Structures are given as C-alpha cells and as structure tokens.
C-alpha cells in the first residue's frame, strides 16, 4: 500500500475506504491465504484488449454538448489507479485484470421486456451509435478524474429490449469467473458485482455504456469490454465488464449495498453536503495533478439529472 501525505490530512483509513471495508471482512473470514493461491490458477491464453476488434471503430465523434471543460486527467494516471475488486483490493490491478478474456463476449438482456435477447458485443456495437464524451468521475473515496469515454447511450439498449410497464429497474451484472478473477473466490462477498438504476435513470441521456477511453478500446482495468458510466453518481455505481441486463419490478440488491447498506446505498448521488459516515465528501483529489477541488452536487450534472429525484425526497439519495 502506498503511504503518502494527503494535502487535506485524512488518515489512510479515510482515503481507501472501499478497499478497507472489504479487507476487514476478508480478514475476519481468514481468507488472506486462499486468495493469493487462487491468483495463479487456471489461466489460459485469453484474448487481450490490444486485439480488440473495436480498434477500427475509434475514435468516435465527440458529443460536445455532454462533455465537460475540466482539464483531462492524464491517461497514465487514470489507467493505473483503479478500483476493480475482482482483481485485487489495491489500486494496482492492471496486470491482474489483463487475465480477463474480453472476446468473445456475450451480453444477455432479459426480464420484463418485450424483446429479450442475447448478443455478441461486436454485433451489438453495429446496432448503436458510438460517441465520445468527456465526463467527471467521482469515487466515494474522494478521488476523481476527468476522462473521455467512448460508447453509447444506455437508453439505446433499453429501447432495443422494449421494457414492459411492470419494469421499474434495470439490474446490471458483471462477469463471474473466479479462474481469471481470483478475488471472486472469496465466497462471503456477493459476487458477481451487481448494480442497478431506475428506468428513468437508465434512460437519462447521461447514462452511458462505455467500450473505450482516450479514443482507444477499453483497457481491462477500466472495465473492458463494456462498463457503465453514471457521472452524477459515486463511482461504485459504474459497474465494469458487464454481461447481463435485466428488467425487474423490484429494486435489485447491489454488491455494495449488500455489503454495507449504511455506507454504500442504492442511489449514491454525489453531494458534498452529505458526508459519508466515516469522512467528508466536500473535496476531491484529481488524479494526476493531485489538485484538490470542491465536490459539486450531482457531480456538477444537476441540469441533466436533478429532476429525476424531485419526488424521492424520503429516499437516502446521497449515500
Ligand atoms: N465490476 C466492478 N466494477 C466496478 C468496481 C469493481 O470493483 N468491480 N469498482 C467501482 C468503483 S468503486 C469505482 S470508483 C470505479 C473505478 O473505475 P476506474 O478504475 O475505471 O477509474 O469502478 C467501479 N466499477
Ligand atoms: Mo469508488
């Protein structure tokens, strides 16, 4: 673990809260040894992101209207400080994540919809409109980045399926393959990683499915080959390496809210005035320059999303 002084003087426990939250449970369960052993099991020459057939489709035209003007985070900074707990509890999971075979990659769309389907990712990409948008990303751990994602509106996938009237939520599920993702052997966690949005959130213009970053195919550490981007919410909502989308009537249980409902809720909308139970959310550290900037309500995207929550005042919207 890297130890360095933070300009705003938080303790180490406060700057890596998600990982520590998991680690505490792992140690309680006495699993530390088993996971290290599993890390080298069952690897077989997978396809790498470098061979990604998407390479010919990029770069895509930029959506200037939905791009922010903040200075871009250097690619190397964003690409080397990642949360992807399937591959490790530290921020340095690049090498481990390369074990994930990203082709072939099937995507299932099912549940309460008129046209459930299963599709290969490259066939899906022929049916959607790729664009680039520069987005802010704010982790609940109080670091942030500004990166150009390439992808398509989640609303496009929703429209292909045609949700039924009873469908209220979209549940999204990450791959499950402990042979390549050793931390998925830790059975007391609710793997696979699951996230969810209301249908109104999922069809908002900001909800995005990214297949690339910095004009290139998505590297594994950022969630190749397909990851959610919800820039007005804390980063843990943006589930990586998705394989399944299900239309459901009831609010789905999600990975983090199952582990710690009082710290990581379903809504997770960014709000500097609502502290996490263990630390302030007022400021954030930009990766790369390490600048401290003030966190903004809805991560600065209120114009697009504040209206989604007008009638939900009784919910814990900011945790
Ligand atoms: N499947 C999966 N998706 C995930 C995570 C994870 O551990 N597993 N971590 C989340 C968290 S906490 C954050 S902040 C972002 C980090 O995205 P990045 O590494 O591309 O910056 O991914 C989110 N998506
Ligand atoms: Mo995060």
Bound compounds, please? the ligand Nc1nc2c(c(=O)[nH]1)N[C@H]1C(S)=C(S)[C@@H](COP(=O)(O)O)O[C@H]1N2, molybdenum atom
Low-confidence stretches: 1-13, 30-49
CATH architectural group: Alpha-Beta Complex
Strand composition percent: 15-25%
Tell me the helix content.
10-25%
Structural class: alpha+beta
Order of helices and strands: HHHHHEEHEEHEEHEEEEHEEH
Overall form: globular
Rg, please?
A: 19 Å
**N-to-C terminal Cα separation, in Å?**
26 Å
Q: What is the fourth-level CATH superfamily? A: Oxidoreductase, molybdopterin-binding domain
Number of helices: 10
Domain Oxidoreductase molybdopterin-binding: 103-256
Protein name: Protein-methionine-sulfoxide reductase catalytic subunit MsrP
Organism: Siculibacillus lacustris
InterPro entries: OxRdtase_Mopterin-bd_dom (IPR000572), OxRdtase_Mopterin-bd_sf (IPR036374), TAT_signal (IPR006311)
